[in-house]
Amino acid sequence: MENTSYMQRALELATQAASQDEVPIGCVIVDRQSGKIVSESYNLTQHIEDATAHAEIIAIRNACKILGSNRLRGHDMYVTLEPCTMCAAAISFARIENLYFGATDAKGGAIISGVKFFEQPTCHHRPIVHQGLLATECGQILKDFFKQKRNKT
Q: What φ, ψ does residue 19 adopt, rounded to 5°?
């Protein structure tokens, strides 16, 4: 059920993150049946001084609380950047059905880059992975953010 409007919303959230001097990554979790966004977030690691406050983790926590369940079966995740290992594990544990991500992350990604978490024999649940949705836009917001950071120093 690929839908660019969900990734567009994730990009809006990434823009909000950048405005707070956070790495601009946005995430939405969608109920596949209703098509409604259940939870959304952006990176908050700097703002709340929590190394685990990645967009995906916050969105999963909020969705679980809203739904009263530690499993998000029947839900899809849209995130602007390829998830890291920590987030990949959380996606697996939450039983997300489909993972859509925009830009790849050769340095920190863990889905098609790095450890390829879902390909490991110890991974209990493997979502269906869809990569490259609005990849150019998702990558550009990160490039612009880090370029601005380098120019400040």
A: -65, -20
| Coil, strand or helix at 69 | coil
Q: What are the helix (H) ranges across the chain? A: 4-19, 55-67, 85-94, 135-152
Q: What is the pTM of this model?
A: 0.96
Q: Cα separation of 89 and 139, whole Å?
A: 23
Reading the block at residue 26, the tokens are 């946005």
SS3 (DSSP) at 41: strand
Count other C-beta atoms under 10 Å from residue 37's C-beta: 17
Backbone φ and ψ of 101, nearest 5°: -135, 155
Of the candidates 12, 40, 49, 56, the residue annotated as catalytic is: 56
**Tens place of pLDDT per residue across the chain (153 aa):** 568 999 999 999 999 999 999 999 999 999 999 999 999 999 999 999 999 999 999 999 999 999 999 999 999 999 999 999 999 999 999 999 999 999 999 999 999 999 999 999 999 999 999 999 999 999 999 999 999 988 876
Does the annotation count 2 as an active-site position?
Answer: no
Query: ∠ at Cα 147 (144, 148), nearest 5°?
Result: 85
